[in-house]
Amino acid sequence: LTLHPMDFEEFLMAQDEEGLLHLLQQGDWSVVNGVASKLMEHLRYYYYVGGMPEVVAAFTQQHDLMVVRQLQENLLNAYRNDISKHCSKAESVRIGQVLDSLPSQLAKENKKFLYGVIRQGARAREYEFLLDCGLFACMAGAPVQQMIVNNDVFKEFKGAFTEQFVLQQLTALGLQPYYWSSTSTPAEIDFVVQTPLRTI
Length: 200
Known about the structure:
Oligomer: single chain
Order of helices and strands: HHHHHHHHHHHHEE
Number of strands: 2
């Protein structure tokens, strides 16, 4: 099971911010820098609200973050309850293990998701992730104060939400991102994508 949330551009459109979206799409960073604070505000809300259409619609209409969190919890509960209807028993167990493991792994200093924490010997190919910042924030119990009011979402969470955001955007573009690290060095690359070779 994979959820397909709205990307950040679609979120801006839902907020009637076509002007900001147009500036982003033009790529004139000197102009974009002039509206950076407004973009950061929308990005904070996107991290909290996410891109699930029902949640975005409620936020757009009511601007009530308690309603947003309740809808996210409802979606997660429905997702858990529906797993067994669409998956084999083994897949249901795996998905439940991932969901249960996310908040505790986010609380660690090392924010990389370790499959071995879910189950000894677990491997990435056996699992799939939620691809929504808002549901991720809900599962982690991320408080509004830290995510919306100040810059803690970019500092306190050690980039976990930014990495989730990047993953969500790459996936929305139809790309399959991979992660690379080395056991012999502290080197890592958070996102690697393969694209067709172009000749110049």
